[in-house]
Amino acid sequence: MPPPAASSRYPSPSQPSGKSEVTDLKSQLRQLAGSRAPGVDDSKRDLFKKVISYMTIGIDVSSVFGEMVMCSATSDIVLKKMCYLYVGNYAKGNPDLSLLTINFLQRDCKDEDPMIRGLALRSLCSLRVPNLVEYLLGPLGSGLKDNNSYVRTIAVTGVLKLYHISASTCIDAEFPATLKSLMLHDSDAQVVANCLAALQEIWSLEASHSEEACREKESLLSKPLIYYFLNRIKEFNEWAQCLILELAVKYVPSDSNDIFDIMNLLEDRLQHANGAVVLATVKVFLQLTLSMTDVHQQVCAIVSVYERIKSPLLTLVSSGSPEQSYAILSHLHLLVVRAPFIFASDYKHFYCQYNEPSYVKKLKLEMLTAIANESNTYEIVTELCEYAANVDIEIARESIRAVGKIALQQYDVNAIVDRLLQFLEMEKDYVTAETLVLVKDLLRKHPQWSHDCISVVGGISSKNIQEPKAKAALIWMLGEYAQDMSDAPYILENLIENWEEEHSAEVRLHLLTAAMKCFFKRAPETQKALGIALAAGIADFHQDVHDRALFYYRVLQYDVHVAESVVSPPQQAVSAFADTQSSEIKDRIFDEFNSLSVIYQKPSYMFTDKEHRGPFEFSEELGSTSITPEVSSDIVPAQQFEANDKDLLLSTDEKDDNKGLSSNNCSAYTAPYESSNISSQMQELAISGPAASATTTQSSFDFDDLLGLGLSAAPAPTPSPPLLKLNPRASLDPRAFQQKWRQLPISLTQEYSVNPQGIAALTVPQSLIKHMQSHSIHCIASGGQSPNFKFFFFAQKEAEPSDYLTECIINSSSAKAQIKVKADDQSTSQAFATVFETALSKFGMP
After folding, report:
1. pLDDT value at position 227?
2. Both ends of the chain: CA-CA distance in Å?
3. Which SS3 state, helix, strand or coil, does residue 72 take?
4. Cis? peptide before 16, omega within 30° of 0
């Protein structure tokens, strides 16, 4: 059934059907403006509510501005509130209309009701129209001297608003001096807190160009002022208490007595019901103890402080909402990492509850891992093993990882190994996968447990393992302990025969290494599998796999004993695994205690400064790019480009997938080796000795026979194809470029390394444009800023009218260049990519 015509639809009761309804509102407000009939205020309320509701949903009701101001002449505070809300919304966008409000707002600032005086002053300061600044000075001065604390509170905030509208006017009127006097002498705590907040902001902004403001800012950290605030801290609300505590953190005490006096003053703040106050107090305690000069005294004080702050934080964890618990746990985790022994006896506080969100459970698992020691390992591991059967798969995985981390800390390894091996009997894919990864790490650190682990791992079928990391861990054990696993060569051979079905480059890399290790330990059984692995690896489209296979082939051909010493040296235990965060980063996070840095587990500069916000994002294709001088100025706006290339921020796995897809469909990477004549081309690329002779050639083919490739003679090497020749005078209209880029599919995607000289020269992007032009590759648009630059190039065949369009993104911090090529003749895309790579590799070279 078709929808009814527009004229027959029923209008929404909360939305005017057209301008007529706003006009009706205007006429009704005008009628009520001067009326004093009984019940007129109720009628005004209904009309005001309609105006506010229309304004809220985005309908322009600025046409009733004058009528709203006229109707505000009433003693009804509800009507005044709605009128002030309306005026504040439209005044900034309509400076001329805001002049109409000055008279009635100034009149209300002198009203007998302090609530109306405060609301009027707040609305007057919220107009934020520079031309009306002169009208603020009188009401603000009166408001700061008002007998009512509410009006004074509003006036203090109004001074700050005035400063942001006109800083010179605020300073000339000596409002900061008035605020300082109020801060020191006012009896109302909220007025004092507002004065402190306003002065901190004003003096911080003025300190950059005023020595007096700099001195005033430093005076806030003087001992008398700090003690003045701390002695009155109980009078303030939670927000003001946090403000004062943040100020106390910056105070530098004169001696240890000063430190202990402040801590005694704030002792009861640790018992506060508000988590923000408790965390702010904890930060003060921690910073005070760090400022102690005597090391022994500092250590004793820190231990004492940790003992004092432990109970309040643990209480907040168990009594608050999940969000508060997570915030407190994040700060506790930071403390636990620095002093785990203090929390070792409280490990039960970090047991997971069934009704907790997963993010809280994950953090608790990290806490349990951090506080595990000789006295509590058994109880903690027992609890963690229960979580391995959790219905939440991610929590189950995390619990298994936690057990493994505790085992790597060398606490009760014997019992933990037995628990880990029991996980393999649960016959759950994700449990088996996580356990295999942990068993591999455990064997790297404790090789003496290989016999117990291998006897269990040997019974696991590789067909039941699908996760790449788990499969890679199993393959590592097959290669490392091939002499202890009777079926190791045959399992590896089966995996190698299914090489093409394995999509993970990590697994293929491990297969190559494991085949090599197994060959050195059980050569007759592994010879054929190794030959197949090397042939498949060299023909692999993934660059790392190809390079490793070629390296193994060459080092084997050079000397088997050297190859064994390189690939399979004597096993040595790993003393410690690399930490994911440096100690410098952890100290920086600790310095930013009670902030988002602790929640994000990274310093603030990593998520606030622009240079730490990840790769440069191009909003719309050629957006923010500039046209190079060699092209015309009438380029089509970049926003019209299609969005099928918004894949600049790919993860490593996604890039690998894209490479694989492009290789299968469009020859994104074509290794110069075919399996049919792999031996001959490997012989050509093999490392030659000082005298390359017929004897060397013959030994090369004997070696190929050893690997089971079955070649008896060396076929003639295939001549390399000629390089693609480009037209140095190519030209392409920007509109034609845009149209082609939209229509042509991506032929290939590749990633190159840029030499250091090129990265250094990239400080001036024009240098790359000129360099590529010297190689007959022309730039049509460029953009970006360090460390990310984006270029669009085009080139043409010399012999025929065939275009190559290229998008090149260079990250100067990683020294990587990612290109996408679109071509009229896709069969020559790889040849063009070779020319492009050659030209790029010479960038910056003398």
Report:
1. 93
2. 75
3. coil
4. no
